[in-house]
Amino acid sequence: MAILRKFRKKIGWKLRKSKPDYNLSPIIYSQLKPFRLPLVLVQIIMIIGTIGYILIDDFTILDAIYQTGITFTTVGFGEVSPISHAGRFFTITLIIFGFAVFTLSIAILIDTVVKGRFFELYKEKRMLKQIATLKKHFVIFYHNEYTIQLAKEFRQNRISFVVVDSIPNLEEIAKQYGYLNYINEEPFSNKAFLKSQLSVAKGAISLSKNISDNITLIASVRLYEKDLQRWPYLIISNAQTKSDEEKLIKLGANKVVFSPSLMAKRVSAMAIRPDMENVLDEFLYKKDTPIDMEEVFVKEDSWLVNQTLKEIHLRDRMKVSVIGITQKSGKFIQMPKGTTLIDANCKLLLVGNNKGISKAKKLINKKEKPQSIENVI
Question: What interhelical angle do 118-131 and 85-115 show, nearest 10?
Fold first, then answer.
């Protein structure tokens, strides 16, 4: 085993632990505490009954235990051996106490089931074991219409995720919208992080419509990340205003979706080039598509500066199209023409296959114009 561990360590292979980060067992055991009294009373009655039959009617130990058992449970099997008058009086007393203990046990059982959380905790423990098998998943915080749509896209693209929210009816919502993994906890709490296995997640997504919720969540995740001393999480959030978007990015979000701006850009693209929007819906947003989209920054020393789009031949040579340009000022140009000039510090929104976009990025990052664009690797 020692040699195997050294070999795993040398090649960087670690076994995936499937044990949940949050242990519910102590809480479940605490729910069973009320049963301790009936169990103790049963043992006491069994001991007293066994000793009584041995002393009163000279039973063997095995016969005494058997007689006590059938008397205590009132199964009515009769006497294993003739019992004296004193023994019968003892038997009646044993039956009365046994019935009292049985009644008490039933009352405690009903009270525990009605008032306790045993079955809820058991279901939650099964969920935690299921979540513990995930790795490189996303934890989506807060349930709303954004979460519903995102969960649908994640399922279609086979991306594992866990939904976290503190709303009381999360279980019904999860069944309705297909959340296979969900945690009912306050999103920014340490319990939520542990139960959702955030320690091995790829990233966190905060989709609250309240900016303060998103701020708290981002700050909490970054602090948790420092405590774990792990690689940075990919944190994605949403914002309702441009100023909120800027705040979230400054506070540590990697990406912020500004919903009104995103909708306006898409509607504008539909109005300008309806055919291009159809292409995006058919290929770019489709599951298992070879087409990808990426935004590439143009540096000041790039040879592309002051060149037109048609002069760089991305579409002809690399099968990559520029469907948008974000200028340094923040202005977005949808579906730019071939005569559009490329400015320094702008961003080109590229659409194409992975290989083509990879070549285009290397071409854009070059300081001098290559003699042959076809040779860009």
Answer: 60
Query: Measured between alpha carbons, how far is 263 from 85 in angstroms, rounded to an integer?
Result: 92
Domain definitions of the chain by residue range:
28-115, 134-260, 273-375
The domain at 134-260 falls in which architecture? 3-Layer(aba) Sandwich (3.40)
Task: Report yes or no: 54 and 90 within 8 Å, Cβ to Cβ.
Answer: no
* Whole-structure pTM value: 0.59
* Gyration radius of the chain's alpha carbons: 34
Do the two domains 28-115 and 273-375 of this chain adopt the same fold? no
CATH class of the domain at 273-375:
alpha beta
Has domain 28-115 been given CATH number 1.10.3210.10?
Answer: no
**Cα 127 from Cα 215, distance rounded (Å):** 28
| pLDDT tens digits for range 170-223 | 999 999 999 999 999 999 899 999 999 999 999 999 999 899 999 999 999 999
For residue 285, the 8-state DSSP code is T
Q: How far apart are the first and last CA of the chain?
A: 45
CA dihedral 151, 152, 153, 159 (to 10 degrees): 50
**Residues 6+ positions from 79 with CB-CB distance below 8 Å:** 67
Residues β-bridged to residue 222: none
Contact 102, 109 (CB under 8 A): no
> Beta strands of the chain (E only): which ranges?
138-141, 161-165, 182-184, 203-206, 234-239, 255-258, 291-297, 321-326, 332-334, 347-353
pLDDT, residue 11, reads: 46
| Residue 55 host element (H or E) | helix 36-57
